[in-house]
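Lab notebook, design round three. We kept the backbone fixed and only want residue identities now. Task for the bench partner: fill in a sequence for the structure below.
Input structure tokens:
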């Protein structure tokens, strides 16, 4: 277990900004933290990198309780956590190289070693030909790459990323997320990524933590949340929000089934197959396919004319790898 958050909360005076929460993240895991503005996402990151002290609870990194460390030990432990910020937060009067080497300079790392580490990271994030540029001469995506390289300067085990793709166009966002995934694989990083963009969650999240008013409302793998019809994150991931509401408002929900499947694991003809196999009319009311991580998730709403056959149809769908996540008769 790399990172373990145990009963951590944060109060400012009388205001509780984060209720006690617990979760853990393994080596190589990407956790997306989502939630409305003011729900406590950034506060959670500040607690993990100990720029803010928790009001209660403990934060374990590689088994060590960071909240129990003295000042000197804490300084060492904090090197294991790198943070990349929204808009990259670069020093405008420093070049790319100088921005990346900042944490190394600050720690007094020997000059040749610092230079080599900086060159390696700048090259790794694809900016070797921009090493002597100033932030004002870079695109938004390039600035983020600098911020990521700087966050990795001290070879951390954990990378915290706060809205690092906000304001970037979709193509640049995708390239930054590809970089994060590649670095996660190469360095076995644990990544905690705060974002308000569902596209980001779809592309990279192993697990999702959904906060509302400082409380954890949902916390699970992206796949499990997708399968949960009551999950807010799940319906957002599939762009199914309005459809899900329409289910309850539907004139006659009898005979309706919402199903979820991984699209290349089911026969393309699954709807017409049902008609033939069960000798009943099966109407396809809505369907969509959404790429999530490396899989194509399909979600569909069908109506079965012969309600008596629904129990058997559900059993059959399960054997086909199609999960019924909502049944209009229930
Ligand atoms: N130093 C502070 N003193 C008092 N209240 C604070 C402090 N820092 C944050 N808060 C409050 O904590 C709450 C959560 O803030 P936080 O920045 O963590 O939210 P967020 O989910 O990251 O929001 P956003 O998406 O808008 O960045 C807010 O109501 C904020 O006003």
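Proposed sequence:
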């Amino acid at each position: 277990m790399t990172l373990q958050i145990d009963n951590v909360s944060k109060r400012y005076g009388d205001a509780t900004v984060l209720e006690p929460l617990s979760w853990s993240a393994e080596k190589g895991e990407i956790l997306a933290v989502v939630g409305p503005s003011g729900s406590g996402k950034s506060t959670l990151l500040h607690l993990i990198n100990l720029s803010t002290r928790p009001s209660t609870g403990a934060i374990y990194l590689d088994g060590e309780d960071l909240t129990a460390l003295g000042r000197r030990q804490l300084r060492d432990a904090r090197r294991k956590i790198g943070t990349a910020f929204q808009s990259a937060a670069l020093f405008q009067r420093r070049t790319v190289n100088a921005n990346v080497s900042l944490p190394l300079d600050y720690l007094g790392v020997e000059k040749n070693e610092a230079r080599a580490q900086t060159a390696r990271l700048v090259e790794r994030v694809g900016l070797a030909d921009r090493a002597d540029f100033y932030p004002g001469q870079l695109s938004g995506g390039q600035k983020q790459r600098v911020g990521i390289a700087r966050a990795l300067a001290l070879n951390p085990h954990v990378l915290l990323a706060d809205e690092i793709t906000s304001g970037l166009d979709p193509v640049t966002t995708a390239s930054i997320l590809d970089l994060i995934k590649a670095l996660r694989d190469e360095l076995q990083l644990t990544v905690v990524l705060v974002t308000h963009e569902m596209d980001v969650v779809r592309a990279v999240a192993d697990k999702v933590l959904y906060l509302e008013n400082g409380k954890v409302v949902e916390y699970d793998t992206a796949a499990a949340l997708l399968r949960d019809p009551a999950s807010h994150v799940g319906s957002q991931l599939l762009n199914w929000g309005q459809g899900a509401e329409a289910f309850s408002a539907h004139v006659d929900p009898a005979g309706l089934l919402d199903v979820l499947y991984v699209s290349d694991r089911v026969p393309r003809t699954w709807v017409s197959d049902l008609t033939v196999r069960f000798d009943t009319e099966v109407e396809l009311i809505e369907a969509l396919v959404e790429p999530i991580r490396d899989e194509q998730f399909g979600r569909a709403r069908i109506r079965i004319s012969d309600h008596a056959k629904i129990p058997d149809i559900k059993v059959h769908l399960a054997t086909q790898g199609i999960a019924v996540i909502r049944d209009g008769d229930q």
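Keep this in mind before ordering anything: The chain has a mean pLDDT of 89.
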